[in-house]
Predict the structure.
Amino acid sequence: MMIQSTAFKYVPLAFTLINLINFLPSTARATTLTTYPFNATYDVVVTANEITPNLEQTLISGISTDAPDGLTKVNGLAYSQTNFTTGVFSSNTDPNTFGLQGYPLGFITFSDNGNDSLFANQITTGLIDFNTLAVTSLGTVTITGGSGQFENATGILTFSQVQPLSLQPGVALQGQARVNGAFQVAVPEPTTNAIPLVMGAIAASIFLRRRYQVVSSS
């Protein structure tokens, strides 16, 4: 009876180890980094809603015909502060940057028509030319994650944007944004370290079961 109980004890152990491998968190597994170049031009529409005379909440949407990996849509929410004496302004997806309380956290999302998306934050500086009513800006987009095939994405993109200026708040303005850079996606791989242990447990269970059968038949 001792041999029987020992033999059958190793059978569920082997299956338990196999299940543990399948459910290991991605941080405990080996990963492969895949790099995706990102160079695209988006035709964007920006709508600014005044919060205070020099603070605005901006809504961003855009479409691209040359974005890689089908990420042809961009949407976002950001906040900007303007010095109307110099024309210099700054923008950030975090409202706390400008001391704004109770406002939703901004975002930048690149997406396709399916489940593949990139999630990001944005920091921008720019200049308003009050003579030509043109707005130029430069900034960085920090990739913080994604969905679909871009889950766990990270990276930093740079962008430049040109658009006209309207002195009337709430007017949708059309412009063009150029995005350049690359991002990486960490793809978890099944770990191989536990495979010898699992195979050993399976072999042990088979050996003990056969031994029990021999003893029982003698």
